[in-house]
Amino acid sequence: MDKRYILILLIVAISGCINDNGNSSTSANQTIIKTSTVTPTAAFPVPEPLTVYVEIKGSMFNPLELKIVNGTTVKWTNADSVSYIMNVDDVQSPVLNKRDSWNHTFNKTGIFEYNSSNHPAMPHGKIIVEK
Fold first, then answer.
1. Using CA atoms, how far apart are residues 101 and 104, in angstroms rounded to an integer?
2. Under a CB-based contact definition with an 8 Å cutoff, are residues 84 and 119 in contact?
3. What are the structural domains, with CATH classification, of the chain?
4. Pure H helices in 45-88
């Protein structure tokens, strides 16, 4: 057998026994775990949602109370088969039939109650607007 051929076989055999760190390996099934020394950066700030949703279903508002920041839009969607008229912040919605939506943007801080004028016995909702 040619000496060059033996030398190549020997190099290939030896190279299969050395892992990424240059250390010789004793097991073909050995798992190598690399750890990182990179320091994580600070969390990326996520802005407050621009729109939040209230579902009207079963003569109830869900959620009944919201805590939002100034400038947030609240969107009411009727999931009932009966119609609703929303009252909030001295503003009244058009008639909301099934699957209809209406939204209102809160541009001042405070506590605002909302209700349905054509269902006065329905529990009133509350929106707390913070800075």
1. 10
2. yes
3. 51-130 (2.60.40.420)
4. none
